[in-house]
Design goal:
The chain has 8 helices and 10 strands. The chain is of the alpha/beta class and 250 residues long. A hairpin with an 8-residue loop joins β7 and β8.
Length: 250
């Protein structure tokens, strides 16, 4: 793994990231909610990029992983701007966005800003609009009153918070209630045993994307994380297919 670096935002926020140069488009991995760049999917993508001479960037949103800050200050818009700032600072002309869970929502928001610089997207259990469909009405009322809700966390001992600022920003950035003007290739990988994000969200997202190059792959026994060896192999194959198709001939 390459050296950990920090990019300073205009307000002083320090965004941790790793970058390996190589042939483009650059693979940019966007972690899920309360996740970071040390996960198995991120590591596998980075290792594949290094081994094949491809460019790749991993990152931690502010308040997550090795990026300092308070998690409760995080919002989709704030983290989207951090991703774009890193892409701009590294002068990455073409990128391939890979978004896991919440990162799948963020990749749509990043693509909306970067336009045709995004050469493709791969979603892994992508969760656009989960502040709408993933939160009960009674909890939405609590969040609207400015209070945090806490839910059981199946992946760790501490409960998972949803802070009112994050929820409000999510509601302001809903994607599935309109067409999504992206014309590049998209691959959506989703487990049908996903207890966090229904696999029907992948189908709904595919319908909303304007692109005709959208493929949905359902893994019948796959869970939300899709981190088994076979799942990661599928991810690597999907990413490699799009990267190779978008790499100019020497």
């Amino acid at each position: 793994m390459t050296e950990l670096r920090f990019h300073e935002m205009p307000d002083g926020r320090q965004i941790a990231h790793r970058f390996t140069p190589g042939l483009g488009p650059t693979i940019v991995f966007l972690p899920g909610y309360m996740s970071d760049m040390t996960g198995s999917k991120a590591a596998a993508l980075f290792d594949m990029a290094v081994a094949s001479g491809r460019a790749c960037m991993l990152l931690d949103y502010s308040g997550c992983g090795q990026s300092p800050g308070a998690f409760e200050d995080g919002t989709l818009s704030r983290w989207r701007d951090e991703v774009i700032a890193l892409i701009e600072a590294a002068n990455l002309r073409d990128v391939l966005l890979v978004g896991s869970s919440m990162g799948g929502w963020l990749m749509l928001m990043v693509a909306e800003k970067l336009g045709d610089r995004v050469k493709g997207m791969v979603g892994v259990a992508a969760a656009p609009d989960f502040t709408e469909w993933g939160i009960a009405q009674m909890d939405k009322n609590v969040l609207a009153d400015g209070e945090t809700i806490w839910e059981d966390n199946p992946y760790g001992p501490e409960p998972t918070p949803t802070h009112p600022g994050f929820w409000a920003d999510g509601q302001a950035n809903l994607m599935l209630d309109k067409g999504i003007p992206f014309d590049g290739p998209v691959r959506l990988l989703h487990g049908q045993r996903d207890d966090d994000v229904p696999w029907e969200i992948a189908v709904r997202l595919a319908e909303k994307l304007r692109s005709s190059e959208v493929q949905v792959t359902l893994i019948k026994d796959g869970d939300h994380r899709l981190s088994r060896d076979a799942d990661i192999h599928l991810l690597l194959r999907s990413v490699a297919e799009l990267v190779l198709a978008r790499t100019p001939a020497a």
